[in-house]
Amino acid sequence: MKPPPFSYHRGRTVEHAAELLRELGPSARLLAGGQSLLPMLNLRLAEPAHLVDLGSAPGLDVIRRDGDMLVVGATARQAAVEHSSDVRALVPLLAEAVEHVAHPPIRHRGTVVGSIAHASAVAELPCAAVALNAQLTLLSADGVRTVGAEEFFTGAFTTSARADEIVAQVAFPVTGPGTGQAWSEFSLRRGNFPVAGAGASVTVADGEIVDVAIAICGVSDRPVRARAAEAALLGTRPGPEVVAAAAAASIADLAPRVDGDLAAHILPVVAAPVPAWGYRASVAKSQVRRAVTTALTRAGGVR
Amino acid sequence: MSQTTDSHADVPAPMAPHKDMKWIGKSVKRVEDPKLLRGLGRYIDDVVLPGMLHAAVLRSPHAHARIVSVDAERARRAPGVVAVLTGPEAAEQFGPLPDSGPAPDKHVWRVLAADKVHYVGEGVAVVVAENRYQAEDARTLIDVTYDVLEPVVDPIAAAEDTGNLVHEALGTNVAYERTFTFGDVAHDFADADLVVRDRLRWGRQTAHPLDTTAAIGDYDAGTGEMVVHTNSISMTWLAFGAAVALGIPSNKLDLRPYISGGSFGSKQFCWRSTVTAAMMSKITGRPVKYVEDRLDHQLNGDQHGSDRYYDVELALMRDGTFRSLKIDCVDDYGAYIQFGVGSHGNALAQVTGPYRITSTEYRVRAVLTNKTQQGAYRGFGADAGNWALERIVDKAAAELGLDPADIRRRNLIPPDAFPYHIPSGNMYDSGNYEPVLDHALQRFDYDGWRRKQEAMRAEGRKIGIGVVTANERSVYGATEFWFWFDDKDVPVKTTSTPEGVSMTVDTVGAVTVTLYSTPFWGNSSDTVAAMLAAEEFDVDPADVSVVHHGTKGGLPAAGPGGSRLTVMLAGAITGASKKIKDKLRRIAAHDMEVDEADLEWVDGGYQVRGAEDSRRSIGDLAMLAYLVKTALPDGEESGLAADFVYDHPHLTMPKPDRSDLGSFYPCVGHACHLVAVEVDEETGSVDILDYVAVHDSGTLVNPRSYDGQIVGGTAQGVGTALAEEMTYDAAGNPLVGTFWDYLIPTALDVPEVNFGHEETPSPITAHGIKGGGEAGRLMAPGALSAAIDDALRDHGVRVTELPATPERIVGWIQGHRG
What we know:
The structure holds 2 protein chains of 2 kinds.
Chain A: E1 7-10, H1 14-24, E2 28-31, H2 37-42, E3 50-53, E4 63-66, E5 69-73, H3 78-82, H4 85-90, H5 92-99, H6 104-107, H7 112-118, H8 124-131, E6 135-140, E7 143-148, H9 149-152, E8 153-155, E9 158-159, E10 166-173, E11 179-186, E12 196-205, E13 208-217, E14 224-225, H10 227-233, H11 240-252, H12 277-299
Parallel strand pairs in A: 1-3, 2-3
Antiparallel strand pairs in A: 4-5, 5-10, 6-7, 6-10, 8-9, 11-12, 12-13, 13-14
Chain B: H1 33-37, E1 53-59, E2 65-71, H2 73-76, E3 81-86, H3 87-93, E4 116-117, E5 123-129, H4 132-139, E6 143-148, H5 155-160, E7 174-182, H6 185-191, E8 194-202, E9 214-220, E10 225-230, H7 240-246, E11 253-257, H8 271-284, E12 288-291, H9 294-300, E13 308-316, E14 322-334, H10 342-348, E15 359-368, H11 382-400, H12 404-409, E16 420-421, E17 427-428, H13 433-444, H14 446-458, E18 463-474, E19 499-505, E20 511-516, H15 525-537, E21 545-549, H16 565-592, E22 599-602, E23 605-608, E24 616-617, H17 618-627, E25 641-646, E26 667-679, E27 686-696, H18 703-722, E28 754-758, H19 780-791, E29 801-802, H20 806-813
Parallel strand pairs in B: 1-12, 8-29, 10-11, 14-15, 20-21, 27-28
Antiparallel strand pairs in B: 1-5, 2-4, 2-6, 3-5, 7-15, 8-13, 9-10, 9-12, 13-14, 16-17, 18-26, 19-20, 19-25, 22-23, 23-24, 26-27
């Protein structure tokens, strides 16, 4: 469990890091908190020739409000986001989801943006980003571009970012009045990635759901929006039956996955005891129901 | 040790619990902990010897394949590499590893695979380099050509298969098969009102100490001496096995024990790491460190636990009285069988649990497959045995409509029946089981919980309660590793499995205890030794020095295992202390010019009976013993030192036809565990709401550390019951390699255990102590299984397979039984 040889490069700034990535080519990998990449190196599941460390680049660890958005920089630690009163007040779903990421020591090293960029199909933060319709800023030697979270994730551990692009920051829309948010997940052991999890953001006005976004992880090769569930809720005056029907709808239009198909783990190992589809879908349904119910309560929509 | 076939003529009546002792029975802080808590423990990986090299092992990617060729030339030229040894080369230079299984020459176990690989992870070459990084880099440069064979994975199919064999020389995949009949089983079954049957599956698990197995070999080519620093166990009287494998004289080998972050049985012997480090030191002439990383340990650690398929039948009467028990077990041993079927000896030592059952049939088939081999894991086969018995008892209670606590109570062996021989022949030295059950029911508030359960169930919550009453055999005699065979030419004798200690009292009266082949494994060897010596000499345990001696020149000793250490050390330390105290008495009598019989030991010294002013302290007398030869009686040697080898307190011979296996595991404790759980029907998660454990392991030595044993064992039992499994796919690929996949419960998953104690001393051990090291894990799986059944009774769910993972539970609820 020792990494293969690699050369280490320190990015002095985010722009410098982008230049290094361009120069070193596709055999270079970007290093942020290292909580996924370093175990992969130790198990020799990844053998990059170069690591470009973003850790000491200045100004990237920001957590700040920018108009209607809350901006999290590329090296902001998960623990800093978890303990930020701004995050809790402005994007409560992100605050709740990050509490479920692994254990405190890992959250003190791991970064929110790094976890999103790693694009695990079962991780909390990519799923929360989809539920929140987060906007990702991709920076390269050519400049910057912005993509929405849903377009960003293209498969297990794969994204629409090029190998020489850095996810420099992720911006999350700030909640308004009448909006309740919640994260719910079930994992086989506390601190593990979930079997399935769901994030929900629901806005209620005059007792009626006027806006809703739900995303699920653990049921596909990427986090997915539960649009059928959203449609079942939008415009309704919510109660337990409506929520249960929406939860059932959330998995109805998903394609069943064969055993072992889901990249369910922190490490893209081929052989792993991955829970079977039927169980995974059943857990996902229950987590959608729980997340939506809690979000509605927080929105003041369900007594 | 006694060797008699007489039932229990030499077993004295149980004694009352000791209440007049200074240290035994008091909660004492562990003497080991100050150094460990300050990071000053010295583990193998902390040890750096001058010129030390590092080893990495290349592991087989195939479950079953013939090795066509191994080309290590590129690796030999890699940076930092000092030596590479391939499997075929090792087979020429070194002998097989010690294997106490049946017909070891027909399933030869080597440190590296020579002609065939037998499981994913088996070593095929070892690289030694200046550092571990270089060794691992060079390992990838070894080219091995394999001729891949069909893997042998399913033990049930493998038992019938004579074409595809793990070891061709054996001619079968069944390494051992035998049916034992103890008592008149046919009559008891015919006579019974009903027979309850169950088919059960105990999944493969392992102990997973945080500190993996590790060794440093240090060969001195000048003297031919080989020192191996090791955190695995190395019994002084069996260390010759490693010497044979290494091709060095047994008296030139010294296996030196180290502290380790846990064993739970899994570091019993672990010859492979010891021999790997030692052989590479012999080849390079430099110290070589081999520390298993987690993958090495998982895949190639020789430490997996029992992997069993059970058919169980219990014959009983309508009123719930048990009559007879039949067990048919297929055990998947993996590719080798280093301890033979010793783990079934552990099960047979308490096959009928705490219950009166008059006859038993036990069939065992030990099947070899292309998986990592079994080792020992806390319970060593009695864990699975206890669970199977408690499962069938619960099924019987359900069929008869009896309360699970009631059916147990009416079958408990009564206190006046001890010493009690169970059908297999093993003796239970003492016991008083009903007070343990009563204590546990009261501590748990059983009736209160039953009422609370009904109220919660009325709200739609799935609440269940489980109860087990179960035994913990302790202090094995190694006879259980060879009574399986009845070769006429090699008649079985009992094997005492002795434990020796050396003690000294120095010039100023300070006490030192030397232990042999007893690594500190996270159990409390030093504290136990210190308390027992402190009890004898009236000193503070913190002031007793404890030394861990290597095997070379060591007294016979076996260290921890089978819950033996405290009992065996108590016998040895009591014996050695008596020798020294007798000498002190002779010196005191001589110096004071009184008769020895007039002296008494009071508060750390000898005095004339009743005359406190005359007392000579241990320090006064020690000064004479070392410095004043003229003050000693004629012929008395200077100094205060004594060795004592304590033999097993009670072994009896098996009958020639094995209708009785004799007494081989006689210090038998008892426990009752009660648990309340809530099951989530959607996710299958099991929340533990309340947990009570009441144990009786004879005289308590240190309640504080014993509670630690119980909670640790219970934590492992929770993992066993709900989460932990070493899974393999149909091609023999292990599906778990790290703690990411192998789900050990964390502090967040383990309940607060509410402890209670009862004390029924052993009549055959020093101070009446029984072993308690496997406490918890022998009970928790049964209790949790019963609670899950109870919670899901509306669905008709019964737990017949462990671990009862959330996914399995949801499947059972949905009717898709595993």
